[in-house]
Amino acid sequence: MQSSNMINYDYSVAKLFAFATIILGIVGMLIGVIIAFQMAYPELNNLAGEYGTFGRLRPLHTDTVIFGFLVSGIFSTWYYIGQRVLKVSMAESPFLMALGKIHFVLYLLVVVAVVGSLLLGITSSKEYAEFEWPIDIGIVVIWVMWGMSIFGLIGIRREKTLYISVWYYIATFLGVAMLYLFNNMAIPTYFVSGLGDWWHSVSMYAGTNDAMVQWWYGHNAVAFVFTVPIIAMIYYFLPKESGQPIFSYKLSLLSFWGLMFVYLWAGGHHLLYSTVPDWVQTMASIFSIVLILPSWGSAINMLLTMKGEWQQLKDNPLIKFMIMASTFYMFSTLEGPIQAIKSVNALAHFTDWIPGHVHDGTLGWVGFMIIAALLHMAPRMFKRELYSKKLMEAQFWIQTTGIVLYFSSMWIAGITQGMMWRATDQYGNLAYSFIDTVTVLHPYYTIRGIGGLLYLIGFIVFTYNFYKTITAGRELEEEPQSTSPMAA
Amino acid sequence: MNWLNDNVNLLGLLGAAAIIIITVFVVGKYIKQIKNEKSTGELVGEDWDGIGEYKNPLPIGWSLSFIGTMVWVLWYFLIGYPLGGYSQIGEYNEEVAAYNTKFESKWANPDEQTLLGMGEGVFLVQCAPCHGVTGDGINGKAADMSRWGTELAIVDTIVKGSKGMGYPLGDMPAGMLDKESATAVAAYVFEKIAKAGKSKNSDLVATGEALWPTCAACHGQDGKGMSGSSPNISNYGKPEFVVDVLNHGKKGDIGTMPSFNDGRLTDIQKLAVGKYVNSLIE
Amino acid sequence: MFHWLEKNPFFFAVAVFVVIAYAGIVTILPDFMNSARPVVGTKPYTVLQLAGRHAYIKDSCNACHSQLIRPFKSETDRYGMYSLSGEYAYDRPFLWGSKRTGPDLMRVGNYRTTDWHENHMLDPISVVPGSIMPKYTHMFSNPANIETAYAEAFTIKKVFNVPYDKADMPKLGTYEEATKMALAEAKPIVEDMKSPEVKAAFARGEIKEIVAIIAYLNSLK
Ligand code: HEM
Ligand code: HEM
Ligand SMILES: [Ca+2]
Ligand SMILES: [Ca+2]
Ligand SMILES: [Cu+2]
Asked: Considering the entire predicted model, what is its pTM?
C-alpha cells in the first residue's frame, strides 16, 4: 500500500472554501455585533433605512454564520480531510476536481442570493430555513454535488476502513439532506394562481404540524451542522496535531451511533408547553437528557486522547483551541438537556438564556474548532510556517474573554427576564409590565455586545495571522508530521 | 417578592448551577489526567494519515452515567410525567386553583388600601402602555386620567358629545348646550347625581338642575341610564364607571380604548383599577 | 462487530439513514391529522390580513415576538387564554417564534387598537418609553402586496381546501373582487389613523403596508 506521504493531495477546493469561511465569518459576526448593540441601543436600527433594522439583520446573521461560515468550514475541511484519511488525491479524478470547483462557484452564487433576498425581506420566516424555494433548489443542488464528491472520493479510496471523521461527514450529508427537504416543502403561489411575486411560496404544513416539522429540522440542524461535522473535524485535527492516537475506538463507536439514534427524538424540546401533544414533549425531554452521554463521549474521548500531554496543551495554541472547544461542547451539551427539562424550560424558553446557550455552543465549540482547523491546514495547504504564535495566544484569550462575557451576561439576562415575567406582587397580580422586563436588561445587552465585539476582534486577528501566513510565512520544505510549525 | 417560592424559578437556578458545577468538575478531572497520566493501550490495525486508535475500554464513569440517565428516563416517563397520566392543561388548572385559594380570602373583602395597591399594579401592567405610567394619556394619545372624572370633563362631554361605548342609545350628540349651561349642568351632575362631593360651582347647581331634563331624556331622571340604555352617570368619576368602560371599551374621538372582557382581569381587579384611576383624578 | 460496516460505505450510509429517519416518523405523524383541525370559530385570514402577515414576516417581527401563550397563570394573566392547537389551523407558516424580546402577540387584537399601533409602529418610544423595538417608518410608505396575498389565499384554497367562500367564512372571489374587499376592509382602519401619507394614498386606492399589518394585528384574538 502506498504511504500517505507519497500521495500528492490537491487542496485547491479546500483553499477556496477556507477563504469563504474566513470572509463569511467576518461578515456574519460583524452583523452579530451590530444586532447585539441594537438590542442595547435601538437607535442603531435607523442606520440603513428598512434594510438595517434588527428584524432584517437577525436572520442574515444566523444564516451567514451557519450557512456561510460554518458550512464552508465543513466543505473546506472535507476537501482536506477526505483525501487524507481515504488516502486518495482529488487530482486522481478530473471529474471530482471539476465537481469540486463547480460546487464552490455555485455555492458563492447561492450566498449572494441569500444575502440579497434576506436584506429585501424575502423570507419564509422559518428559523434557519428562511430561504424561498428558488434558493432552496440551489441549496439542494449544492448539497447533491457535495454528496457526489463524498461518495466519489470514497469510491476511489485506498484506505478501506472509513475513519471516524468520514462517518460523521456521511451523517452530516444524509441528515441535512433529509431534514432540509422535508422542512422546506412548500407550494410556489405564482404557479398555482398566476399572480403575485414569482418567488413566494406557502408552507405545506400548517400551525402545530408546521411547528413540529420546523423544530424536528431546527434541532437537528443543530445536530447535523453545529455538532456532527465539527466532531468530524476534531476527530481528525486533534490527534493529527498532537500526534496522539485516539483514546478509545469503542467510545468513538458508541458515541457515534448513540448520537445518531438519540438526536432526532429531541426536537420537541423547542416546543415544550406549546400545543403539541404532551407525550411528544415528554419524549423530547427524555431523549434530551440521554443525549448528554453520546455528546460527552466524543468530548471525553478527545480529552483523554491528550492524556499525559500537558506540555502540548501549554505550548501549542491550536491544541488549546481544541481542548477549549471540547470543554464548551461539554458545557453546552449539558446546558441544552437541562434547559430541556420541562420546569427549567418553563423559565428559560423565550428568554435570553437561549441565545446564551446558543453562543457558548457556537462561539466556544464551533468557532474555536473551525479556527483550529484552518490554522492546522494553513501550513500544509500553503507550505508555509504559521506567521505568529503570539497573535494566536492573544487571539485565544481575547476570544475566550468574549465568550465568557457573552454567555454570562445572557444567563443573567435570561434568568432575570424569566423570573420577572412570572413574578407576582403581594396581591397576586403580575408584578412587572413588559417594558420593565426590557429596560432592566440594558446593561446585560451592552456587556454581550462587548463580548461579541471581543470575539470579532479575535477573529480579525486570526484573519490577519492567516493572511500573513500565506503571504509572508517562512516556506516549508517538508510537510510537518504533527505539531504545526509556527514562528514566535 | 418571594421568587424562590416558585418551583420553576428554583429549578431554573438549580439547573444553572448544575451546568457550571458538573462541567467544571468533570473537565477538571480530565485536565488532571492530562497533567499526570500517560496514555497507553493496544492500537487497532489501521493508520489513517498517521492517526491511530487505541482499543481502550469505555470509561467506567461515562458508562455508569449513561445507565444513570436511562434510570432517570424511566422515572420521568413513569412517575414524573407519566405518559397518559399527565396533561399540561390539567397542571394549569391546578395552578389556577391553587392561586385562587391563596388569594380568595385576601380578595373577599378588600379594604381601601388593598384595592388601591392592587389597582396600581394592574394599571401599570395593563393600562400604562396607552395611558402612560402616570396616567396622563401621553400627550393626548389616550384619556388623561387626572382630568377624566372631573367637572371639567363633564363640561367637555356635554359640549363635544361622547361616543363609542356601544350603548343602545348610540352616541351622545355634541353641542347640546352652550359652554355656560354645560358648566351649570356639570355642577349639578357632579354634586347631586354623581354625589362626588362639593362642586366648585355650587352656586350653579340650581341652574343646572333646571336644565337636567335635557339629559334625563337619555340618562333618566336619576342619571342611572334607564336600565342600560345609556351609561349610568351617577357613577361618573367613580370606580364603577371605570369598570363600565372596561366592560364596554370606547371608540371615541381621541382613539380606541379596548374592552377588557377577555378574562385577563377579574371583577375585583377591574374594581381595583377603577379605584386607582379614581385616585388619579385631580 | 461493527468493523465490517466501516468497510462498506453503502451499508454504512443506509444504516445511518435508518437510524436517523424513523424518530421523525414516530413523533410527527401520529397526531398530524388531529393537529390540522381548526377549533370552532377559527377562520382563514382575509386577503388584507394575509398581506399584513406577509409584512410581519418580511420584517421578521417573529424574531422578537412570539405568538404562543403557554398554559401558565403568569402568561394567561398577561396575554389571555392559552393557545389551542386548532387556532393555528390556517397558519402557514406557523409564527410561534422562539424568543420574546418583545411581548407575545397571539391575542394582541384584544388589547391594542389601530391608533395605538399607528403611534407605536411609527415611533415605539413615543408610547412606551424605554422600548427597544425599531421604528417602522418604511411601512408607511411601502405599498402592501395585495396581489401576492391573494395568490396565496387562492393557492391554499385550491390545494389545501382552505374554506374560503364557504358559509360564515371569508370571501375570496376573483382578484378584482378581492381587491375591492381589501379596500373596504382597509377603510375603517385608515379612518382611525392620522398619517396624511397613508390617507392620501388610500384616497388614490392604494393600501400601505402599515394598514395591512394593523389589520393583521387586530385580527389576532
Ligand atoms: C445535548 C445537546 C443539546 C440539547 C439537548 C440542547 C437543547 C436545547 C434546548 C432545550 C434549547 C431551547 C429551546 C427553547 O426553549 O427555545 C436549545 C436551543 C438551541 N440550541 Fe441547543 N441543545 C444541545 C446542544 C446544542 C449545541 C451543541 C448547540 C450549538 C453548537 C446548540 C444550539 C442551539 C441553538 C442554535 C438553539 C436555538 C434554537 C432557536 O432558535 O430557538 N445546542 N437547545
Ligand atoms: C461576534 C460574534 C457574535 C455575536 C456578537 C452574535 C450576536 C448574536 C445576537 C445579538 C443574536 C440575537 C439574539 C436575540 O435575538 O436575542 C444572535 C443569534 C444567533 N447567533 Fe450569533 N453572534 C455571534 C456569533 C455567532 C456565531 C459564530 C454563530 C454560529 C456559528 C452564531 C449563531 C447564532 C444563532 C444560531 C442565533 C439564533 C439564536 C436563537 O434564535 O436563539 N452567532 N447572535
Ligand atoms: Ca425554504
Ligand atoms: Ca430562535
Ligand atoms: Cu434543540
From this structure: 0.95
